[in-house]
């Protein structure tokens, strides 16, 4: 809703949602239901949109293009992360030290080096 109200509450965790269909998708996390199956590799997904994105692995489609260097990506969030290489922005801050990274994957790799 536009009011910020989140009336659809998950009975299994504390999450709540503004739309019923979003709650329905969320419940698949708890149930393990994965109704959308790839016909090529048989991998299955909780959401149709995730399957559609996955299909690009098989088709080689890369619809998201960087307007600076013309490199193409299969996922929009990968393009967004890539754009930080051009801006110099380092939005992924390590919670344990002062290091910051251009891409989320670089932060994840860095976090593996920290001993808890």
From TrEMBL:
UniProt key word Transferase: no
InterPro entries reported in the protein's UniProt record: Dev/Hematopoietic_TF, Znf_C2H2_sf, Znf_C2H2_type
GO terms, biological process: regulation of transcription by RNA polymerase II
GO molecular function: DNA-binding transcription factor activity; RNA polymerase II cis-regulatory region sequence-specific DNA binding; zinc ion binding
Localization of this protein: Nucleus
Record Gene3D superfamilies: Classic Zinc Finger (3.30.160.60)
Taxonomic lineage: Eukaryota, Metazoa, Ecdysozoa, Arthropoda, Chelicerata
Protein name as catalogued: C2H2-type domain-containing protein
Family, similarity comment: Belongs to the krueppel C2H2-type zinc-finger protein family.
Annotated source species: Rhipicephalus pulchellus
Residue ranges constituting the C2H2-type domain according to the UniProt record: 8-35, 36-63, 64-91, 92-116
Chief localization: nucleus
Keyword set, alphabetical order: DNA-binding, Metal-binding, Nucleus, Repeat, Transcription, Transcription regulation, Zinc, Zinc-finger
Gene Ontology CC: nucleus
